[in-house]
């Protein structure tokens, strides 16, 4: 001690005394001091920090390990214990018990919540634009960007929005989109990437073509740049749901800007966990190597690409497909005058500003709504990434979703099955066993049943077919559906085909079959509240 000042006081650090019987207060005090650092947050029930890799300059969220937590806690406070022999408080290290309790806690009442990382200016829920980097308490977002590189007018006009749209259109001028709807879908992908961090939900953007060299990966790389200046590391598409869930949870814990599945060799299979992250704000799971279960946000841009692969079944309504078709034998040999990826990489602030100007101008204009077909789950996305483009005169970027749903191979397969069943049994009930027996003398029905439940030895698996019939029961296709006939009191399940009257079929299929020009009533307008 010098001049009456102790070493502890000279460090200008708070003092935490490990007094017996005060464990709860000690842990609470440690959490409070940790929250004051401005570098530590809670995310999904875990203590995390934001780090930037010194080599790649990539910024991500990192889980704080017990050892790292010990070092931090030791550096932000003076820890003391009471020495009975000397009858005074002496300096010590944080106890292992305190660190373990703090690390394994189920909740952190004093720690700020980190919802994600954003790499450009972003909107708050009230429509205001956040142009300041760092942590924003209102949104729970951590901004990693230089605000000097971006300029978005406070009240942009429609003319300014059209100028911004022209700038984005130039980036896509040499891509061979199959239709104008596909080009609009690519532009909606750009807007989605630019504001994905503030959207509760957003569909997956899938780029499809007939052959290699069509520009699929290049377009995905371009979309990625609107979400982050960092290069993404594409994943292979997991073969089963367990693998998919582990990958998604591990990735989302780090708050990535993009999760990409590149060069798919199979259709976009509706793994349960993938469907969940596309229609839920959070996903939960056990952390590898820890006893804790984390719940993390799903606000990442999901991308995929592949040749002649498409979303099927439950993925059709969760996916915006962008079709490329160069209409030449060897697309890879084409020559291009522009390099939009390099352009955006060099002047990213300008292009991000253009995307945000379009959305901001639409908001300032009073959020005018164009009557279009609605799509469940994505009302907010539809407003911010679809309506501004419709307002500026573009084709509907979501039309491809409805086209995919209508031509889903699974739907077409079920259509053939229902037609063959109806021709054989009309509206009378039958059992799965009888269905299999009769299919032997009915080639059309037999082929479908073999595809659904056939074994390698040529036999039909009763249970597999029964499960398939049950899974598709109630789904209306071409005015028909499979229903369980509960009118008959038997020990064996009886199934029959039910015809739906014309009015019911019209109401169910109108979203898929009605031309856009026919939509004008409010029931078809996606008028979800935003901002």
In CATH terms, the superfamily of the largest domain is P-loop containing nucleotide triphosphate hydrolases
CATH-derived topology of the largest domain: Rossmann fold
Helix content: 25-40%
The residue ranges in which pLDDT falls below 50 over 5 or more consecutive positions are 1-5, 502-529
User: Residue-averaged pLDDT, rounded?
Assistant: 85
Report the span from N to C terminus.
58 Å
CATH architecture of the largest domain: 3-Layer(aba) Sandwich
Q: What is the makeup of the main sheet?
A: 4 strands, parallel
Q: Shape from CA axes?
A: globular
Based on helices, strands and strand pairing, what is the structural class?
Answer: alpha/beta
DSSP strand content: 15-25%
Total helical segments? 19
Q: CATH class of the largest domain, please?
A: Alpha Beta
Q: Output the radius of gyration.
A: 29 Å
Describe it for me?
The strands form seven sheets. Strands 13-16-12-17 form a four-stranded parallel sheet. Strands 1-5-6 form a three-stranded mixed sheet. With 531 residues, the protein is α/β, with parallel strands linked by helices. Helix 2 crosses helix 4 (96-103), helix 3 (66-76) crosses helix 4 (96-103) and helix 8 (241-252) runs parallel beside helix 9. The longest helix is centred in the last third of the chain and has 17 residues, at 348-364. The protein has three domains: 7-114, no CATH class; 174-346 and 396-406, P-loop containing nucleotide triphosphate hydrolases (Rossmann fold, 3-Layer(aba) Sandwich), CATH 3.40.50; 409-500. It contains 19 helices and 19 strands. A hairpin with a 4-residue loop joins strand 10 (134-136) and strand 11. Helix content is 37%, strand content 17%.
């Amino acid at each position: 001690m010098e001049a009456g000042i102790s070493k502890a006081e000279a460090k200008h650090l708070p003092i935490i005394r490990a007094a017996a019987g005060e464990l709860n207060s000690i842990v609470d005090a440690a959490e409070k001091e940790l929250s004051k650092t401005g570098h530590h947050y809670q995310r999904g029930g875990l203590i995390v920090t934001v780090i930037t890799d010194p080599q790649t300059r990539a910024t991500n969220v990192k889980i704080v390990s017990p050892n790292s937590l010990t070092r931090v806690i030791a550096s932000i406070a003076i820890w003391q214990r009471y020495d009975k022999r000397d009858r005074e408080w002496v300096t010590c290290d944080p106890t292992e018990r305190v660190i373990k309790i703090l690390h394994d806690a189920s909740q952190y009442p004093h720690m700020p919540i980190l919802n994600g990382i954003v790499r450009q200016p972003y909107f708050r829920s009230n429509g205001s634009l956040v142009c300041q980097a760092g942590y924003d308490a209102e949104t729970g977002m951590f901004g990693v960007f230089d605000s000097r590189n971006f300029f978005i007018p406070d009240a942009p006009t429609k003319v300014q929005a059209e100028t911004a749209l022209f700038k984005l259109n130039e980036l896509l001028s040499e891509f061979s989109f199959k239709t104008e709807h596909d080009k609009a879908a690519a532009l909606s992908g750009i807007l989605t990437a630019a504001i994905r961090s503030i959207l509760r939900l957003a569909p997956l953007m899938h780029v499809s073509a007939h052959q290699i060299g069509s520009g699929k990966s290049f377009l995905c790389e371009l979309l990625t740049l609107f979400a982050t200046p960092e290069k993404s590391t594409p994943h292979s598409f997991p073969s089963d749901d367990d693998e998919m869930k582990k990958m998604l949870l591990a990735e989302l814990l780090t708050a990535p800007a993009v999760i990409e599945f590149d060069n798919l060799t199979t259709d976009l299979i509706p793994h349960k966990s993938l469907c969940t992250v596309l229609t839920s704000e959070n996903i939960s799971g056990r952390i590898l190597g820890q006893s804790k279960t984390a719940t993390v946000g799903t606000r990442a841009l999901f991308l995929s690409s592949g040749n002649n692969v498409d979303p099927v079944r439950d993925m059709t309504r969760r996916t915006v497909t962008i079709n490329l078709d160069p209409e030449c034998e060897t697309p890879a040999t084409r020559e291009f005058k522009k390099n939009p990826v390099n352009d955006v990489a060099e002047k990213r602030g300008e292009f991000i500003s253009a995307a945000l100007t379009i959305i901001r101008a639409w908001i300032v204009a009073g959020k005018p709504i164009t009557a279009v077909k609605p799509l469940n789950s994505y009302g907010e996305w539809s407003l911010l990434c679809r309506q501004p483009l419709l307002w500026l005169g573009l084709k509907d970027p979501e039309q491809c979703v409805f086209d995919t749903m209508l031509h889903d191979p699974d739907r077409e397969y079920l259509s053939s099955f229902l037609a063959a069943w109806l021709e054989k049994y009309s509206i009378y009930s039958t059992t799965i066993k009888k269905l299999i027996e009769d299919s032997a003398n009915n080639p059309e029905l037999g082929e479908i049943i073999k595809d659904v439940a056939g074994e390698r030895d040529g036999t039909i698996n009763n249970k597999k077919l029964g499960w398939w019939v049950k899974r598709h029961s109630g789904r209306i296709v071409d005015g028909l559906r499979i229903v369980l006939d509960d009118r008959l009191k038997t020990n064996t399940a009886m199934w029959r085909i039910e015809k739906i009257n014309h009015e019911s079929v019209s109401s169910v299929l109108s979203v898929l079959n009605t031309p856009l020009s026919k939509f004008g009533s409010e029931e078809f307008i996606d008028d979800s509240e935003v901002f």
